[in-house]
Amino acid sequence: MLILFLLCFIMLVVALILAVYLLLCRGAWPKKSGFSIDFSEVRELADAPARELPVSINRLIIATGKLPGWVVVAGDFGKRRSVIEFPSFQVVYETGSIIIEVPFNERLFNKFPYGEEFYVRNYGLMQQAMENADLIIPTHEHWDHLGGIAQSDDCAGILRKTILTKEQIGGPTIADAEFPESSFDNLKPIEYDRYYSAAPGVVLIKAPGHSIGHQFVFVRLRNGNEFLFTGDVVWTNDNFSRKRSRPWLVSKKRMENRTQISHQMKYLYEEFHANVNQTINLVSTHDPRQHEEYIFRGLMKSGFQV
Ligand SMILES: [Zn+2]
User: Do residues 125 and 101 make contact, with C-beta atoms less than 8 angstroms apart?
Assistant: First the structure.
């Protein structure tokens, strides 16, 4: 009887350890990536006379948060908290601008369980910058990337100059941004296969996984500096240094396709992080250390021009 009890107990412990490992500790990292970007084609699509290319990129922090380490990198229980930010980026042209990423307002931010600070003044500046902008481009349809459009006093006006894809509008997560009813009734979303030329120097690159409408945004400045906004493939560079994705449980909650994300991560790691000859600057939307480094090196500016 005692032996049977002990056997059951051991089996229960083993099952528990296995469940914790599979749900929280195992991070996807394929041997070979099936994802790739043809940058010669992307550069061709971005090409325009120098005077028409954007001249600079600005970053504005709308809010900050702190995620538990294991939420960012599977099994990372040692790291207490991972600092993240919710920024908006302004691509500045000689005459005009494009806004990439439009985080949520304070009411929606307060629903985010790991939030720290919300910068009301910066949120107002972002709204003003959107009014002045020629185009608005979210990397994907999550509330922290387009919620500020839905919550804008001029939502209909802003939507008219927002590039949204068919997948984004039809996706299961856009509802969290709480767009007013019938917002998309007269909106014609874009449809594209791999790449889409959005403006001089700006090309969209299809990269579903984190959400079905997730995409990268390539930007080439007049001075030759190139950027690849990679949205939420990773939240911080820790995934690359640890070579591990988010845990299964976190992916499940966000309805992610882990296979697609892991192949994108592997590709970005090999082409950029482990490649000393690469020249394109990756921009992960939520990684404050990376943005600060770019600002320190003069690649980006802090604050918006309005
Ligand atoms: Zn996000």
Answer: no
